Amino acid sequence: MQITRREFGLGAIAAGLAGCTQPVTRGADASIGLPDDLRPVRNAGYDAWVAGFRSRAAAQGISSATFDRAFRSAGFLPGVISRDRNQAEFSRTLEDYLAIAASDERVSKGRAAYSRHRSTLEALQSRYGVDAQIICAIWGLESFYGERRGNVPVISATSTLAYEGRRGQFFESQLIAALKIIQSGDIDPEHMTGSWAGAMGHTQFIPTSYLAFAVDYTGDGRRDIWSEDPTDSLASTAAYLAKNGWVRGTRWGEEYLGGTPSGSLIQPQPGGPRFAVTRNFSVIKRYNNSDSYAIGVGHLSDRIVGGGPLRTPFPPDRYGLTKDDRMALQARLTRAGYDTGGVDGVLGPNSLEAIEAYQRARGLPVTGQPSQELLRMLG
C-alpha cells in the first residue's frame, strides 16, 4: 500500500492518540454529540462539485442508485476543513508519546480487553501469524479499544475534503472507495461513520485500505468494522499486517539494555532508551509511518501481557525538567486553581494555557513556558 495512514492525516501522533474521534454514540442517530461545525451546511460550490463528480463516480463503476443513496443526507462539513488546515503535527518527544500511548489507563483497559477477547485474538494469531497483543495494542492506540471510533459521516467528510482540493485527488479516491463499500452491501451510508477525515471502525481503516485488506472473519457476509463487535476489525488489522510482510514468531523488538542486539538499533530521542527492532517493526510502520507510533504499539503490546515500564530513563527536556518535575508542575498549577487537564507529565496545550494564566495573574512575563523557577514559585 503506497499511502500510509500517517499521510492520510490521521494517526495517533497528530491527533493526540485517538483524540481526533468523538466517543461512539449509541443509538439510532450517530450525529448526536457532534459539534455544530461537523454537521452539514449549505454550500453552493460543494453542491456544484458533487454534481460534477457524479460522472467520475459512474466511470468508476458507481451506480446512480448508490450515488443517490449515499448523497441523500450528505453535505459540506466546515469543521472538516478547519481541522484539516490546522492539523500541523504537534511535536512530541518519544517520552511524551509513550506517556500517552502506554498510560496506566490504556494499559489497564488493554489488559481487560485482551482478557475479554483472548480467544478471538489468539485465533487471529494462529491464522495470520500476527501476535495477539500487537493486534490489541493497535486497537488501543487507534480507538481506545473501540471507545472512540468516531461518528462523522464518511461520505460527507471525504467529499468535503475532495471538494476543498488541498489533497483533492487523494480524498476523491477515498470517496470512490467509500461508495464501493456501500455498493457492496457491507454498510449503509447512515451507519458509515468514522473520524473527521474518514478513517473507520475499531482500528481506523481508510476506505482504500478497507477495500484492500478488510475481511469477513465472522462469516456473516459483511466486513463489519463499525459494529460493537470488534472481531472483523481485529481480523482486518491482522490481515493488513500479514499481507504487508509480518514475520510469524518474531517480536517487534525490545528495549536494548546491552549485549548483542537481535535486530537494528534505534534511539528516537537523544539520551533516551535505545531499541533493538526487527522487520516487524517496519511492518507496524506500514500502519503509521512513525518510529514513535511503532514503538508505542510494541511497548503497549508488551505492557498488555504483563511487561513493565521502560528501564532506561529519559533525559530532562529542553527546559531542564524531568517527567517527575513536569508532573509536579501540573499538580501544583491544578492545586492553585489552574486546570492542566490532568497530571501526566505531558505539557500539552492545556498545561501551557494554565502556565500563561498563572503568569498573567502574577504579573509575570507571559511566556507559557515551564521552568524550574516556575516550579519553585508554585511551592
How is this structure best described in words?
The protein has about 375 residues and is mostly helical. It is built from 17 helices and 5 strands. It has helices spanning about 10-15, 45-60, 65-70, 80-85, 95-100, 105-115, 120-130, 130-145, 155-165, 170-185, 205-215, 230-245, 280-285, 290-305, 325-335, 350-360, 370-375; strands at about 150-155, 195, 255, 265, 275. A hairpin with a 7-residue loop joins strand 4 (about 265) and strand 5. The radius of gyration is 22 Å and the shape is globular. The relative contact order is 0.13.
Structural class label: mainly alpha
Mean pLDDT: 92
* Strand order, sheet with most strands: 3-5-4
Radius of gyration, Cα only, in angstroms? Answer: 22 Å
Terminal CA distance reads 53 Å
Sketch the major β-sheet: 3 strands, antiparallel
What is the helix/strand order?
A: HHHHHHHHEHHEHHEEEHHHHH
Stretches where pLDDT is under 50 for at least 5 consecutive residues are 9-16
Shape: globular
How many individual helices? 17
Determine the strand fraction and express it as a percent band: under 5%
Number of strands: 5
Helix content: 40-55%
Quaternary: single chain
